[in-house]
């Protein structure tokens, strides 16, 4: 018997406390004993220069991309999502590999821009969300206001599962509304150290609040939560150890086990015998001496065994996976077996790409891994024309990793790269230089945005591309892309070619 799996991610706006919570979940889940390790990484990551250094050294960010821990007979796979908003594309892809998410909100700030964006991605895929309102050890907004904001802004039913008894200076603990037990702060640090009390006497205004809340909000309904219609809300302070244990229990009790995954010709259920999975992330050059890469595969069905041969759908020969990597918090371990919901790191030399399906028989293809229309386009200017080949290789590699997108125009040789955030451009240039020894600059491109084009009738598409040749390009996989000068132009051509589909995301 294998233990149940809970594969999840934490989504939040920077600074809400994701790193602190991650560390505490691992700690309470028994995976790490040294507080502070994950934290240092989070703080470094926010600083651009430090982040670049880390990127160059890699190692660290890889072992922490997936953190596995076991608690109460359940195996948890926590997938890290990059904190910086410029890396949202990578984050979005990671969210395709989870079955549920924890949304962390700062009690003083409520729902912020990045929380909302990430939430929308979860909603697109019906990923159920547990909400954690963090930092109640500080002054925060009134509890009702926070709950109503979540409900209104995200159009979700909310169900408070715990209730903060005061916040900031008046913080007296977290009441579990189900058991009527309160977790109390202790000592000078005001942390939770295990002190709980049954049926506490509450300040009158808190008792009243709770009564109102229980009458006013939806009762907890596991089904509604799993459908993504309701979010259970927990209050706490990751820093002071209030909440992490509640969240582990909630994931264990309510979060869905691995779900069937959308695929062609048919969705794949985890019970199916054949081993299948998809690559949601590729990380290259972890060791600068070797051009090795790790492809992160989410296992969707079957029991994976080390040495097994898997075939990437659509391209390539079967590959034998001799040294798969499982991720146990601080160290990489070589896996012998893995089960649906688990993440396996597969070392390879560039054969595996984001979006690839791997399977024993190679007759399925997972769908739904999005590419996003870039918001910034730049022309790549090569300083040394003899390096064209290296440049093409570098751009292809980075497109594969999902660092940037690359477009090869139909006319001319001015390759164009597209990103969703400015920071990706810096990463691109620094890596071109450091890893590929290609000196290049970026120039403004005469385009502002891009759309993948398709049409049911191939003649329609041909007609469109023929008439718009100067604005047509191909992406890394040879798909036709229309480069537009503005969002307005997209609307304009859309009206003129109603039978051509202009997509801002492309599923691969
Ligand atoms: P992030 O990964 O979401 O960006 O957030 P991170 O955990 O790094 O937390 C951001 C800041 O908020 C940190 O403070 C952290 O200590 C603090 N924090 C996290 N959880 C809580 C909490 O429950 N209560 C309080 N009061 N603070 C919390 P910092 O000043 O940026 O870092 P540091 O100097 O404290 O290490």
From TrEMBL:
<dbReference type="Pfam" id="PF16658">
    <property type="entry name" value="RF3_C"/>
</dbReference>
<dbReference type="GO" id="GO:0006449">
    <property type="term" value="P:regulation of translational termination"/>
</dbReference>
<dbReference type="InterPro" id="IPR027417">
    <property type="entry name" value="P-loop_NTPase"/>
</dbReference>
<comment type="function">
    <text>Increases the formation of ribosomal termination complexes and stimulates activities of RF-1 and RF-2. It binds guanine nucleotides and has strong preference for UGA stop codons. It may interact directly with the ribosome. The stimulation of RF-1 and RF-2 is significantly reduced by GTP and GDP, but not by GMP.</text>
</comment>
<dbReference type="InterPro" id="IPR005225">
    <property type="entry name" value="Small_GTP-bd"/>
</dbReference>
<keyword id="KW-0547">Nucleotide-binding</keyword>
<keyword id="KW-0963">Cytoplasm</keyword>
<dbReference type="Pfam" id="PF22042">
    <property type="entry name" value="EF-G_D2"/>
</dbReference>
<protein>
    <recommendedName>
        <fullName>Peptide chain release factor 3</fullName>
    </recommendedName>
</protein>
<dbReference type="Pfam" id="PF00009">
    <property type="entry name" value="GTP_EFTU"/>
</dbReference>
<feature type="domain" description="Tr-type G">
    <location>
        <begin position="3"/>
        <end position="259"/>
    </location>
</feature>
<feature type="binding site">
    <location>
        <begin position="12"/>
        <end position="19"/>
    </location>
    <ligand>
        <name>GTP</name>
    </ligand>
</feature>
<feature type="binding site">
    <location>
        <begin position="80"/>
        <end position="84"/>
    </location>
    <ligand>
        <name>GTP</name>
    </ligand>
</feature>
<dbReference type="GO" id="GO:0003924">
    <property type="term" value="F:GTPase activity"/>
</dbReference>
<dbReference type="GO" id="GO:0005525">
    <property type="term" value="F:GTP binding"/>
</dbReference>
<dbReference type="GO" id="GO:0016149">
    <property type="term" value="F:translation release factor activity, codon specific"/>
</dbReference>
<feature type="binding site">
    <location>
        <begin position="134"/>
        <end position="137"/>
    </location>
    <ligand>
        <name>GTP</name>
    </ligand>
</feature>
<dbReference type="InterPro" id="IPR032090">
    <property type="entry name" value="RF3_C"/>
</dbReference>
<dbReference type="InterPro" id="IPR000795">
    <property type="entry name" value="T_Tr_GTP-bd_dom"/>
</dbReference>
<dbReference type="InterPro" id="IPR035647">
    <property type="entry name" value="EFG_III/V"/>
</dbReference>
<dbReference type="InterPro" id="IPR053905">
    <property type="entry name" value="EF-G-like_DII"/>
</dbReference>
<dbReference type="InterPro" id="IPR038467">
    <property type="entry name" value="RF3_dom_3_sf"/>
</dbReference>
<dbReference type="InterPro" id="IPR009000">
    <property type="entry name" value="Transl_B-barrel_sf"/>
</dbReference>
<comment type="similarity">
    <text>Belongs to the TRAFAC class translation factor GTPase superfamily. Classic translation factor GTPase family. PrfC subfamily.</text>
</comment>
<keyword id="KW-0648">Protein biosynthesis</keyword>
<dbReference type="GO" id="GO:0016150">
    <property type="term" value="F:translation release factor activity, codon nonspecific"/>
</dbReference>
<dbReference type="GO" id="GO:0097216">
    <property type="term" value="F:guanosine tetraphosphate binding"/>
</dbReference>
<dbReference type="InterPro" id="IPR004548">
    <property type="entry name" value="PrfC"/>
</dbReference>
<keyword id="KW-0342">GTP-binding</keyword>
<dbReference type="InterPro" id="IPR031157">
    <property type="entry name" value="G_TR_CS"/>
</dbReference>
<dbReference type="GO" id="GO:0005829">
    <property type="term" value="C:cytosol"/>
</dbReference>
């Amino acid at each position: 018997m294998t233990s149940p799996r809970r594969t999840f991610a934490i989504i939040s706006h920077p600074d809400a406390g994701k790193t602190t919570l991650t560390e505490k979940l691992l700690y309470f889940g028994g995976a790490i004993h040294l507080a502070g390790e994950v934290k240092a990484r989070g703080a470094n990551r926010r600083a651009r220069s430090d982040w670049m250094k880390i990127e160059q050294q890699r190692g660290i960010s890889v072992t922490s991309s997936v953190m596995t821990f076991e608690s109460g007979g359940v195996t948890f796979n926590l997938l890290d999502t990059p904190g910086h908003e410029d890396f949202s594309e990578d984050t979005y892809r990671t969210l395709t590999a989870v079955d549920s998410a924890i949304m962390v909100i700062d009690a003083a700030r409520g729902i912020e821009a990045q929380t909302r964006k990430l939430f929308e991605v979860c909603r697109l895929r019906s990923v159920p969300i547990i909400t954690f309102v963090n930092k109640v050890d500080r002054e925060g907004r009134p509890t009702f206001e926070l709950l109503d904001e979540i409900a209104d802004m995200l159009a979700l039913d909310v169900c408070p599962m715990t209730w903060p008894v005061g916040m900031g200076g008046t913080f007296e603990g977290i009441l579990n509304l189900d058991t009527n037990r309160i977790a109390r702060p202790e000592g000078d640090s005001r942390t939770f150290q295990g002190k709980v009390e049954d049926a506490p006497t509450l300040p009158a205004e808190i008792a009243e609040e709770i009564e109102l809340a229980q009458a006013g909000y939806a009762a907890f309904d596991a089904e509604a939560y799993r459908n993504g219609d309701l979010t259970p809300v927990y209050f706490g302070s990751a820093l002071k150890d209030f909440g992490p244990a509640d969240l582990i229990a909630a994931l264990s009790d309510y979060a869905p086990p691995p779900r069937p995954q959308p695929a062609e010709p048919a969705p794949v259920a985890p019970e199916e015998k054949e081993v299948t999975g998809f690559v949601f992330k590729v990380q290259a050059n972890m060791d600068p001496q070797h051009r090795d890469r790790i492809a992160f595969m989410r296992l969707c069905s079957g029991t994976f065994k080390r040495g097994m041969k898997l075939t990437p759908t659509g391209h390539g020969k079967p590959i034998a996976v001799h040294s798969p990597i499982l991720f146990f918090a601080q160290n990489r371990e070589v896996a012998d077996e893995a089960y649906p919901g688990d993440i396996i790191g597969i070392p390879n030399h560039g054969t595996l790409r984001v979006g690839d399906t791997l399977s024993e028989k190679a007759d399925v293809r997972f769908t739904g891994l999005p590419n996003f229309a870039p918001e910034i386009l730049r022309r790549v200017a090569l300083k040394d024309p003899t390096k064209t080949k290296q440049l093409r290789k570098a751009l292809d590699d980075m497109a594969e990793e999902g660092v940037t997108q690359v477009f090869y125009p139909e006319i001319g040789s001015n390759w164009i790269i597209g990103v969703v955030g400015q920071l990706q451009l810096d990463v691109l240039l620094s890596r071109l230089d450091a890893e590929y020894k290609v000196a290049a600059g970026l120039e403004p491109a005469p385009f502002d945005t891009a759309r993948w084009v398709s049409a049911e009738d191939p003649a329609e598409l041909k007609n469109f591309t023929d008439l718009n040749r100067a604005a047509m390009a191909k992406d890394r996989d040879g798909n036709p892309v229309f480069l537009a000068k503005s969002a307005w132009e997209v609307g304009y051509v859309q009206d003129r070619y109603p039978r051509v589909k202009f997509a801002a995301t492309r599923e691969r």
